[in-house]
Amino acid sequence: MPRDPLIGLVGKPSAGKSSTLNSLTDASSKVGNFPFTTIDPQRAIGYLQIDCACARYGLSDRCKPNYGACVNGRRSVPIELLDVAGLVPGAHQGKGLGNKFLDDLRHADALIHVVDVSGTTDAEGKNTRGYDPSVDIAWLRSEIVAWIRGNLMEKWGSIKRRHVAAKATAVETLQNQFSGYGSTSAVVARTLDKLGLKEPLEEWSEETIDRVVNAFTDEKFPTVIALNKIDHPDADKNIAKIAKMQDPNTIVLCSAISEIFLRKMAKQGYIRYTEGSEFVDTREDLIAAGDPDGGGLKELDEKNRNRIENLKDMVLYRFGSTGVVQVLSKAAEMLGLVPVFPVRNTTTFGSGAGDSKYVFRDCVLVKKNSTVADVARKVMGDAPIAYIEGPGGIRVAEDQVVAVGKNDILSFKIGK
């Protein structure tokens, strides 16, 4: 199954980006088929939690994904992650790994900006106290905007002349310039529609160009702000400040190191942990709840017992989870990702293979407003499609849009 879209993780040194990436890609505590976690040193596979179609049809007990897992209708779907390294102030001027950082970043469909909300690391990731992490959020965006604006203004005179000579539309001209950032004409069109500009491109002022670049940045690089290290004593005041400055729908509070610890303890059989939730049970908890065997869990030593109790109080009960699962869910929400389930048989939902008792073996993630034809191309490539069926063998038109619960279970019939 295809693995795009691509989510980029950015963050200054020591912000917790590596811990966040590790917690998103660790499948050790899940049950299912997780054949790979890393693709190359910068790319890895994370697992996005979604509601599986099997729950709709009461088939959760027969759902066995080819990749990922499905437990009681909650499915972990592979999604590709990109570690965008080298974020330092002045990246757009080539400082640090600036050029490589920006070149890597342009491949991403959305960004997760991991911010050290404790304020204990400065702009370059060195230990300090009392640093204002809201500054990090501002300068990441300013680096991207300055990079795009600088590239555009460098050639603006010739861009305008070509635009007039070719009698091109603003979308056509800008897409020629923005395609290098992984843009599409649809992204550029949405950018200009939101601005509602009246003046023709050749008459744009520098202020208008700034507005266009800022709007394009928001459209092309939707960003989740992952406020990490929420269990630190100084985190609360910084969270409160950032919450007043940023759209609250872009913020997720998280503790990546807590998530890694909980998954490790669950894997080793010391606790029972439901990822993305506040629920952690120790052997003692289960015995107190009436299970004389304590769920078969191992006995915790005093150090780890205290650590888990502190983690419950400081993170899980206060915030409802470690936030790591929610970080990826928020990125998917920003992109409007729709899970689509390709099947062979639209009555049994099987794959048609020898193990056809299993259902919904595959799942792909497509962007919002994708059509049935878009899904066909993504799943089947250039194979000739005779027709497409939905549940119950009902034919589906290629121009229909897919959405959760609508045209999201499809069977592609090969032929001319």
TrEMBL record:
Gene3D superfamilies: 1.10.8.470, 3.10.20.30, P-loop containing nucleotide triphosphate hydrolases. PROSITE patterns: G_OBG. It comes from the Eukaryota. One of its GO terms (molecular function) is ATP hydrolysis activity. SUPFAM superfamilies: P-loop containing nucleoside triphosphate hydrolases. Keywords: GTP-binding, Nucleotide-binding. This is OBG-type G domain-containing protein. It comes from Thermothielavioides terrestris (strain ATCC 38088 / NRRL 8126) (Thielavia terrestris). The keyword Transport does not apply. One of its GO terms (cellular component) is cytoplasm. The keyword GTP-binding applies. Residues 5-274 form the OBG-type G domain. The lineage of its organism: Eukaryota, Fungi, Dikarya, Ascomycota, Pezizomycotina.
